[in-house]
């Protein structure tokens, strides 16, 4: 009996498999981290083969915990770290190079060269995206230009590209033995190669980037009744969403004007704009939110922040501040405030609303009074400040003032952060009962495709509030703190000179 739906949630630092019942409750979950590879400053890579191995391990473990097999799953959905780029040989299944992660900044020179003719917004009209190191297209170009033999292999049909969703689905459905090479509209919209209106690869963009069309996966709906393929045990794979779009679906933000913010490795706020493609004038991205079956695509405005949870991980792994990430709250609570310091974590440049790839991380306002606890608190506050910047831009673009913010992701368990977020936004912050809505959204997409759930109303009924944080900070304090943050951000900019990588 197919009583459950499964979701592969392949994130920047870990992979998990989650099994959900019809009420959207978690039946079982297993999660494993994978290695973060830093060959040079600004370069971030993953071993794609390790990611596939972890995917298989977490699936087996979660199924064992639930006491079921793949045959008991009505469908499987996939959600993934977006923009992370893999190029592999479809005959052997071997990647030609490590996966280049979305945070990686090595393509800054490529982006600068492309921007010489038309500026940073050269392709924004077609793609909704500024020229930035964030996106997949320049990463593919870097691999084709720098890894010997790959461009020649691509012309022979022996080198294909995918974001991590394509890599996982290809392996899941057979790999070299008939694996399907597909992606969905949300992931395709993050490559800088897809036209937002046609929902197809754009020949002009492919020509400028020098990417052969035959490398690219077929673009499919996010929830597809014409299933992508099946696993070895016959489970249908029919849901695919980039992680932030998946969280939007998991939060049931199906109406225009509804928004969510996900706190993970980075921080990502999406505002549903319906079937309208809304250009941003304030440094946001225009992206595909989801497409269910043959219905029109739904679009979103997105504010992308590169480093939030990753800053906590950096304090843990690089500076040995604590053994487990959740301990940061214990240290931060030892002090009433950050002692006048600000931590701008521009490790990969600044994303929304600035798009400054030449920025780098800074701590400003240091005195001898400052200790480890203040730094921990400033690291948490940095996430809230960056979210405020994105929300301000979103309200400016949309003309809608948000009455409350739905939140999800690993960091929403940090109650100090959530209270400061409500304070600095001057708006309620709402955490749902299922905080890991990314996997839930992928499960919803897959389940809708096979009729496990019949309608969006079924999904809305599953959404339940866990906790609400109301703002408690006075207006004078709020604006003084935020003004200091904006001043600190300026100190981080233009650190990397044009012809010199720090």
Note the topology.
Elements: E1 4-10, E2 14-20, E3 26-33, E4 45-46, H1 48-66, E5 73-80, E6 85-88, E7 99-100, H2 108-115, H3 124-127, H4 136-146, H5 150-155, E8 160-163, H6 164-172, E9 182-184, H7 185-188, E10 194-195, E11 200-201, H8 203-209, E12 218-220, E13 229-230, E14 236-242, H9 243-250, E15 259-263, E16 267-274, E17 285-290, E18 298-305, H10 309-317, H11 328-332, E19 342-344, E20 362-364, H12 372-398, E21 405-408, H13 415-425, E22 429-432, H14 437-450, H15 456-462, E23 465-469, H16 475-492
Parallel strand pairs: 1-5, 5-14, 9-12, 15-21, 21-22
Antiparallel strand pairs: 1-2, 2-3, 4-7, 6-8, 10-11, 13-14, 15-16, 16-18, 17-18, 19-20, 22-23
Helix pairs in contact: 9-14, 10-12, 12-13
Structure description:
The chain is α+β, with helices and mostly antiparallel strands. 33% of the residues lie in helices and 21% in strands. The protein is built from 16 helices and 23 strands. The strands form 7 sheets. It has a 7-stranded mixed β-sheet. A 6-stranded mixed β-sheet has the order 3-2-1-5-14-13, with helices on both faces. Strands 4-7 form a two-stranded antiparallel sheet. Helix 9 packs across helix 14, helix 10 packs antiparallel against helix 12 and helix 12 packs across helix 13. The model has no long low-confidence stretch (mean pLDDT 93).
